[in-house]
Amino acid sequence: MSNFPKLGILGGGQLGKMLCQAASEWHLPVYVLDKDESFPAAPYATVFERGNFRDYDDVIAFARNLDVVTIEIEHIDTEALHKLEKQGVKVYPQPDKIDLIKDKGLQKQFYVEHGIATTDFKLYGTKEEVNRAVEKGELHPPFVQKTRTGGYDGQGVAVIRYREDVPDKLLDGPCLVEDMADIDKELAVVVARSATGEVKVFPTVEMEFHPTANLVEFLICPAALDGDTDGRASKLAVDVVQQMEIVGLLAVELFLTNDGELLVNEVAPRPHNSGHHTIEACATSQYEQHLRAILGLPLGDPSLLRPAAMINLLGAEGHTGPTYYDGWTDVLAIPEVHPHLYGKADTRPFRKMGHLTALGDTVAMARERAARAQSMLKIIAREA
Amino acid sequence: MSNFPKLGILGGGQLGKMLCQAASEWHLPVYVLDKDESFPAAPYATVFERGNFRDYDDVIAFARNLDVVTIEIEHIDTEALHKLEKQGVKVYPQPDKIDLIKDKGLQKQFYVEHGIATTDFKLYGTKEEVNRAVEKGELHPPFVQKTRTGGYDGQGVAVIRYREDVPDKLLDGPCLVEDMADIDKELAVVVARSATGEVKVFPTVEMEFHPTANLVEFLICPAALDGDTDGRASKLAVDVVQQMEIVGLLAVELFLTNDGELLVNEVAPRPHNSGHHTIEACATSQYEQHLRAILGLPLGDPSLLRPAAMINLLGAEGHTGPTYYDGWTDVLAIPEVHPHLYGKADTRPFRKMGHLTALGDTVAMARERAARAQSMLKIIAREA
């Protein structure tokens, strides 16, 4: 395929899988590096290579014949990526941007330095420092403690509600502590910036979290916002991606406070859970948009064509073992419901096993369909 | 994946590829049999097996661990499929239905016997018989001669316009001869019938053919028909699939005569070129619908969500060799244009190298976008 560069993806999880699926439309050659062939992306990569994307030598060896390298997870060692960049491989998002984002402390400092509204925060070196600050009365629960690195899917975040939670519920390691923002809504805006500098922004989505798993439960698009707020959310996301000069997707998570203020919570430089619905609901999916951006192609039209509601399909509580989709047939009888399964052989409580996007004439219709599907489908452990 | 049967597809061309892509949403395990790994479906099959789907032993060996077997082309030897059916493998479409359809003579006789309107025809055993009928004055050009078996993508069809075309332009072998129907429009209706007997019909599409290559050039949906005609077209397709008792998709090609009569031209028991647009334009794609039908799952909603125009992407005239997509970047700048490339390493004149679906607020908008893309993209031969 003489037109197309060879693309490598570090990570073969569901985001890597969905990038492979998007690439399949153009028959784009995609190489994926991850531990073993049980990973979601493996069957849909042109070439799947076993290896550890956190290992310097594995990454260098993986990229030896590739033209462009991207990631599906930012919590990686970027040393090899810096080396590849020096060797002339296009690495998008750029390694220095990944370094900035994966350390939540640096990320927050970037916002402060660039005049981007974010929640107030303080940095601490250790759990003990946080404990001391509480004991001295400098820091008062409720607050949110986040480890500076390694947080993902609700990991690395502690919500400290009461004085008695300290020190037992505190997390180890360098961290930041934020006030509990006075939040009306949690929003996300996925924005793309191409290697050519072109920027396009997807419609704002509204998120609701599962009460115990700290994972997004419902995502609706369009968000129920007045036009002014919606416009400000898009503009803020564009501002962040342009100031960071990221190439690729940037998912910008925002808080809308009860005062109507928009604050950046955090960002991810890759396809994001809050953009899954774009596969069916938008003129261009976030996955195709990421490919366009990192390959320097014109960005696609991000318009929403149809209201959508998305749910993550999580492993049922109390079930660990071989995956079984109970209620599968019933779910498929609901119109405009699109389940995506990630093919994980084993389930465990709250594991992300797939997602499901429902469309409808209105958000209410889409959401009702998604909720109906959710009530029918249980991902449980059962031998075949 | 304990819920899912193991599915096999005979044939790894673009239709097989798009079945694999649809199956990837559910992470359904798909086995594909075809000659070698250069075939379009190979990178997207869970398991790709080298072999000849026209070879009895290869097919039997391929299916030894499979639960359900389907096809992406009906011009195959069905002996192995009959054997598999006897062994308890679910073969959809059923082998006897494939036998019926792949012989255009038997197919036409079926329509006559079941009161399904079709063009008038006569069967002949050889080219010489056709020649004699013309010489005797029993048969008068213009007419269309079709070989009873082996016709595909414009192969096996001769349009005999003048007396002087006989015998030189006649095709060899058993054939049928049809009147040149007095055609206003050529239509296609893709309909699905599930293993459970459920039937759902996709919206009618209107086709326009390339003037020399005898391949569909433009496909538009919805077709420009009055409601009565459109309803009759859907009803006719449902009638055919129910009378044939096919399990899976059936693409029903229809002629609308200048008198407003609808005649069945021919059918194909598989995903069809006239259903490519369903990937982006309909609530359920024809590929997912075929999977649902043959797996006995509830059929999806076939509603058109957005007007569409589809073009086949053909190899440029005068170009044979390594494929190069000239104008690729420009095409991607057009909104709501979805090119699908089949990854064929070599191009040749009029070879089907891909297709492209454009959406829009209206058919006119979709068609203008598709035409613009077509004028920009040339699939040529060029070394990398």
- The low-confidence runs of chain A, each spanning 5 or more residues with pLDDT under 50, are none
Instruction: Categorize the overall geometry of chain A.
Output: globular
Give the largest interface: A-B, 44 and 44 residues
Oligomeric state: homodimer
Number of strands of chain A: 21
Helix- and strand-based class of chain A?
Answer: alpha+beta
CATH topology of the largest domain in chain A: D-amino Acid Aminotransferase, Chain A, domain 1
CATH class of the largest domain in chain A: Alpha Beta
Number of helices of chain A: 11
Summarize model confidence as the mean pLDDT of chain A: 94
InterPro entries (chains A, B): ATP-grasp, ATP-grasp_carboxylate-amine, ATP_grasp_subdomain_1, PreATP-grasp_dom_sf, PurK, PurK_C, PurT/PurK_preATP-grasp, Rudment_hybrid_motif
Pathway (chains A, B): Purine metabolism; IMP biosynthesis via de novo pathway; 5-amino-1-(5-phospho-D-ribosyl)imidazole-4-carboxylate from 5-amino-1-(5-phospho-D-ribosyl)imidazole (N5-CAIR route): step 1/2
Subunit structure (chains A, B): Homodimer.
Domain ATP-grasp (chains A, B): 108-295
Give a written overview of the molecule.
Two copies of one chain form a homodimer. Chain A is built from eleven helices and 21 strands. The longest helix of chain A is centred in the middle third of the chain and has 18 residues, at about 225-245. In chain A, strands 10, 11, 12, 13, 14, 15, 16, 18 and 20 form a nine-stranded antiparallel beta sheet that branches. A five-stranded parallel beta sheet of chain A has the order 3-2-1-4-5, sandwiched between helices. Chain A folds into three domains: about 5-90, Rossmann fold, CATH 3.40.50.20; about 120-180, Dna Ligase, domain 1, CATH 3.30.1490; about 185-380, ATP-grasp fold, B domain (D-amino Acid Aminotransferase, Chain A, domain 1), CATH 3.30.470.20. In chain A, about 25% of the residues lie in helices and about 30% in strands. With about 375 residues, chain A is α+β, with helices and mostly antiparallel strands. Chain A has helices at about 15-25, 55-60, 80-85, 95-100, 105-115, 125-135, 225-245, 280, 285-295, 330, 365-375, and strands at about 5-10, 30-35, 45-50, 70, 90, 120-125, 145, 155-160, 175-180, 185-195, 200, 205-210, 215-220, 250-255, 260-270, 310-315, 320-325, 335-340, 345, 350-360, 380. The mean pLDDT of chain A is about 95. In chain A, helix 1 packs across helix 9 (about 285-295), helix 2 packs parallel to helix 3 (about 80-85) and helix 4 (about 95-100) packs across helix 5. The interface of A and B includes residues 43 and 382 of A.
